[in-house]
Write a structure and sequence with these properties.
There is one protein chain. The protein has 87 residues and is an alpha+beta fold. The protein has one domain. 28% of the residues lie in helices and 44% in strands. A 4-stranded antiparallel beta sheet has the order 1-2-3-4, covered by helices on one side. It is elongated. It starts with a helix and ends with a strand.
Length: 87
């Protein structure tokens, strides 16, 4: 019984750790190949990671501000989880 519980917990955790995407995969997801790009990993929790990327938002020709887009990386995929105005 105890061995079964260990397997039920360990196998999904191992799967999450192995499929945690890296920065190269995130930049590929964004279709960006620049090394000096502001995209980066904000946090790595081994089973998932949090990433961010900056982009411009134009309200009008005179009003442009930066937006920080946030993504969750888990199981080899990326999911948008929100954005915030930077300036």
């Amino acid at each position: 019984m105890r061995r079964t519980i260990v397997y039920v917990v360990a196998i999904p955790l191992l799967l999450l750790v192995v499929t945690n995407p890296g920065l190269r995969e995130f930049k590929s997801y964004l279709h960006e190949n620049r090394d000096n790009d502001p995209a980066g990993r904000d946090a790595n929790f081994f089973i998932f990671s949090l990433y961010s990327n900056f982009g411009d938002h134009i309200d009008s020709p005179r009003n442009t501000h930066m937006i920080k887009f946030r993504y969750l990386g888990i199981l080899g995929n990326f999911f948008p989880i929100g954005s915030e105005n930077v300036f």
